[in-house]
Amino acid sequence: TSFVGGWSVDDSTLGTRLEEMVKDLVATHASLHPDLEVDIRVRPGHPAQVLLEHSEAASLIVLGSRGRGGFAGLLLGSTSREVMRNARCPVLITRGPRD
């Protein structure tokens, strides 16, 4: 059992639940880009390391940046920095419309 966001969850269901959440999120925008192929993979491990392992076969890695506004908003987080420096494919780091 692990703690995720304050809830105790069974590890065997966490990946499946996260994958469903991502699929739902992607589905809300899929109609805008019907020809875009999205491959959703939920894997355990440190985010940067997992992304880097998959970067050799990927066409593009897209990362979101939470940013905090002002000067801090110009800085990348540790995952974005690590992936940007070491990925074997192009990396796109983006901020949402509310940032």
SSE order: EEHHEHE
Q: How many strand elements?
A: 4
Biggest sheet: strand arrangement: 1-2
Biggest sheet statistics = 2 strands, antiparallel
Helix content: 25-40%
Evaluate the radius of gyration: 15 Å
State the helix count. Answer: 3
Which word captures the global form? globular
Average pLDDT: 79
Kindly describe this structure.
The protein has about 100 residues and is α+β, with helices and mostly antiparallel strands. It contains three helices and four strands. The chain has a two-stranded antiparallel ribbon. A hairpin with a 2-residue loop joins strand 1 (about 1-5) and strand 2. The longest helix has 20 residues, at about 10-30.
Helix-strand blueprint:
Layout: E1 2-4, E2 7-9, H1 11-30, H2 47-54, E3 61-64, H3 78-86, E4 91-94
Parallel strand pairs: 3-4
Antiparallel strand pairs: 1-2
Helix pairs in contact: 2-3
Describe what is shown at a glance.
This protein is of the alpha+beta class. It is 37% helix and 14% strand. It has a two-stranded antiparallel sheet. A two-stranded parallel ribbon has the order 3-4.
Task: Quickly list its features.
99 residues, alpha+beta, two-stranded antiparallel ribbon, two-stranded parallel sheet, 3 helices, globular, disordered N terminus
